[in-house]
Specification:
Chain B: It is a multi-pass membrane protein. The complex is a heterodimer of chains A (about 120) and B (about 240). By secondary structure, chain A is an all-alpha fold. Chain A has helices spanning about 1-20, 30-45, 50-60, 65-70, 75-115. Chain A has 2 domains: about 1-60; about 70-120. The model of chain A has no long low-confidence stretch (mean pLDDT about 90).
Chain lengths: ~120, ~240
């Protein structure tokens, strides 16, 4: 648990340092994720400890959104004024982006599979 | 003389303990309800937990900042959790390699659809500039979205709320969209919900199916990367087109 968490924090720290040092537009944890992924490909997979820690954190990933989400109480005023454009934009854009990416990926991966099946 | 209940609350509210404990209690309670209801999407645990917390804080007159002083310890874990996404990603590496091109094309299309439709609709319906800019990265995982919003001149804390709402919306509705569109492949289902609804969609996908979860994590990571790179370039151009 501690070993796994340390490793995650080290990768995050390296990511943050790279972002600062090279003034990249990408957040540090994303760089950290990329670096860890490369490390896993090179090493041939995570050890038990890292796998356990990651599974533990990711099982309750949605918990981590609760503190910032509760910040909705700071914006009641704005939300009362602009609820219509914000709600319509959120709902329409979310449904649209799910539909577009699902249909496109389904069509393209079927196409790719069919090509593979052909002798 | 014993201190009144209100005084005890005032004392406790000044320590990080209260905010942290409340967050975990609210989430545990919400998750218990969610599990009892057989993971029904309409009882999304983030939505229920946030509703409970906002009610408690409002009724007790506790400022959000006081609460966040404690809850920030949970918030902090978003960073290492984002790094940890490399592990489920690696687990699907073999399958990913075979469909890299379809994944990247769908990613670009979905990512553009998410950002541009949100900005366009909000602007056309008369939302303020700050709100529109805060809306742009709403499909991206929270730590990235807040950073992007700041760069664009939006309000990071408003973005956090929009990100949460998008996540919940996607997690709640995805199943119905897939049913209407006849999308059955768990990889495809996970990818689309992770792309549009980041971590909350990914959490939901993991609860449904391991492979869906891994593809959701992949889509979330890639969309975060792409949006962080693309939006700061794209939006000034888009802004010049809008009224």
């Amino acid at each position: 648990m501690i070993g796994g968490l340390t490793l995650l924090l080290v990768f995050q720290l390296v990511g943050e340092a790279l972002v600062r040092g090279l003034s990249l537009p990408i957040p540090g944890p994303v760089i950290g994720m990329g670096l860890l992924f490369i490390a896993l490909v090179l090493r041939g997979g995570p050890n038990e400890q890292l796998r356990g820690t990651a599974t533990g954190i990711l099982q309750h990933f949605s918990l981590l959104f609760v503190p910032a989400g509760t910040g909705v109480m700071l914006h009641f005023h704005r939300l009362a004024d602009e609820w219509l454009p914000l709600t319509v934009a959120l709902v329409a854009s979310t449904l649209l982006s799910i539909a577009v990416s699902a249909l496109l990926l389904q069509a393209l991966s079927r196409h790719a599979r069919h090509r593979e099946d052909r002798p | 003389m014993r201190p009144a209940l209100g005084e005890i609350w005032v004392y406790l509210a000044t320590t990080p303990l209260l905010g942290l404990t409340l967050t975990l209690l609210a989430y545990q309670g919400a998750f218990w309800v969610y599990r009892r209801a057989n993971h029904h999407p309409l009882l999304n645990p983030v939505m229920v937990a946030v509703t409970v917390l906002v009610l408690v804080l409002t009724l007790t007159g506790t400022p959000y900042q006081t609460y966040f002083d404690g809850a920030q310890f949970v918030h902090f874990l978003l960073g290492p959790a984002t790094v940890a996404l490399a592990i489920p990603l690696y687990a699907q590496w073999e399958r990913l390699k075979g469909m890299l091109l379809p994944l990247l094309v769908s990613l670009a299309a979905g990512s553009l659809t998410a950002a541009l439709s949100a900005v366009g609709i909000a602007a056309l319906l008369g939302a303020s500039r700050e709100s529109v800019m805060s809306m742009a990265p709403k499909s991206v995982t929270m730590p990235i979205a807040m950073g992007v919003a700041e760069r664009l001149g939006g309000l990071p804390s408003l973005t956090a709320v929009l990100v949460m709402s998008t996540g919940i919306l996607g997690a709640v509705c995805a199943r119905y969209i897939y049913r209407i569109l006849h999308v059955d492949d768990y990889a495809v289902r996970g990818f689309a919900v992770g792309l549009a609804s980041h971590g909350i969609g990914t959490a939901r996908a993991f609860q449904v199916n391991e492979q869906a979860g891994a593809f959701a994590a992949l889509a979330m990571g890639l969309n975060g990367l792409l949006t962080a790179l693309m939006l700061p370039w794209l939006l000034p151009w888009l802004e010049s087109l809008l009224p």
